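User: What would this chain look like folded?
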Amino acid sequence: MIGAQTTYNRWKRRRTIVVCAGCGKDHPVGTRFCSACGRDVLLPAADYEKLQDAKFDHEQTELAEKCQRNAAIKRIQALRQATACGHCNRYFDPPAQFCTSCGADIAHQLLADETIYAIVQPEFPRIIHSFDDYHGLRMSAPEKGVMRKLIFRTLFRFQRT
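Assistant: Here's the prediction, encoded as structure tokens.
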């Protein structure tokens, strides 16, 4: 829990400094140019914090969308490996050789793209809007490290406040 003195110090700091919008360096009120980068865009600390929060929220949204995109790509890749039964229309993971419902041989019967699209589109409606979006994802690879960035940024945000 934050004590009254800490809250007062934050309030006092916000009222007695301006912050460079370019590099984030603190300066006393009345300073016209940043001593670190030379810019003349100095904001009150409260406005700078609002700007940083808006940037952070935008970055969080982008990372969350990339995580969804990666999940969609991985799901498509998994379904492209699955086999399908032509008799009862069930699909199975790659090691399956025979249908567990009707006993039919399903060794080399892969799912069609239209079937995969019909399965994946309801799972990821914000990512896959059309069959063209599906084809774009089908040919791409997931971006590495996105989930780690999202988790790190979220933890950093909670530490900062």
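The two ends are 11 Å apart (CA to CA). If you want, I can go into more detail on any region.
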